[in-house]
Amino acid sequence: MKLKCVIVDDEPLAREGLTKYVEVIDFLELRGTAENPLGLNKLLDNEAIDLIFLDIQMPLMSGLDFLKIKTDLPMVIITTAFPSYALEGFQFDVMDYLLKPITFNRFFKAANKAREYHLLRSRKNENMPEREEEKTDFFFIKCDNKYEKINTPDILYVQALQNYVMIYTEKTKYMTLLPLKTVEENLDTRHFMRVHKSFVVSIKRIETIENNEVIIQNHRIPISRNLREEVLERVVKDKLLKK
């Protein structure tokens, strides 16, 4: 099992150095780099990330400011040249704190710590299959002054629109004041996948993949360029008839 990771640092040499470290560790898979937390936010919107290597001092927004604002983040390892930030960083339950210049041995130790935690959490989830199944069958959302039950098998797709989402089902659609990531976390990843930063779709409901769109009933849903290969891999590859 590989950890999908991203590197966030405003210094090109720092990003390059960490990238080289990631490339030689077989259980890490680099999915992108960013110069600041705004770029990181876009990466997190596009796909599920397991681990973030996050610098502290960056333009526009510091790493700590991002941790204060953003909730439900994946595992975070702080990278910085300033030891004074260590205590504040650990208040956000970060996995580790790497002080620049970062040696490979220290980097590997922190990455392995994240891997062990990820494996432990995965085993814990595997030991609770009934509970997981119950979670993915349905959930409730608040719509205006009432609570609507959403049966997940009925969902066609979910669309993010600014600070709320639209959930499209076979019969109707629901609007609720939630981030897309919250809804995505309550969907079974075996049956749903993100195809765009603003769309999560039911895999079994996909009828056609045409250019950079998936078609579900009469709905045309865009596919992000960097997610198209993954969509084809999961939806088409094993079920494509060949000569």
Strands ordered across the widest β-sheet: 2-1-3-4-5
- Unreliable spans: 130-135
Secondary structure category: alpha/beta
- Our Rg estimate from Cα atoms comes to 20 Å
Order of helices and strands: EHEHEHEHEHHEEEEEHEEEEEH
Task: Kindly report the average pLDDT value.
Answer: 87
Give the tally of β-strands.
Answer: 15
Most strands sheet:
5 strands, parallel
What is the helix tally? 8
Q: What fraction, in percent, of the residue positions are helical?
A: 25-40%
End-to-end CA span: 33 Å
Task: Determine the strand fraction and express it as a percent band.
Answer: 25-35%
Oligomer: single chain
Shape descriptor: globular
Q: Can you describe this structure?
A:
The chain is α/β, with parallel strands linked by helices and 243 residues long. It has helices at 12-23, 37-46, 63-69, 86-90, 104-126, 129-137, 180-185, 228-235, and strands spanning 3-8, 28-34, 51-55, 75-80, 96-99, 138-143, 146-151, 155-161, 164-169, 173-176, 192-196, 199-202, 208-210, 213-216, 219-222. A five-stranded parallel beta sheet has the order 2-1-3-4-5. The protein starts with a strand and ends in an 8-residue tail after the last helix.
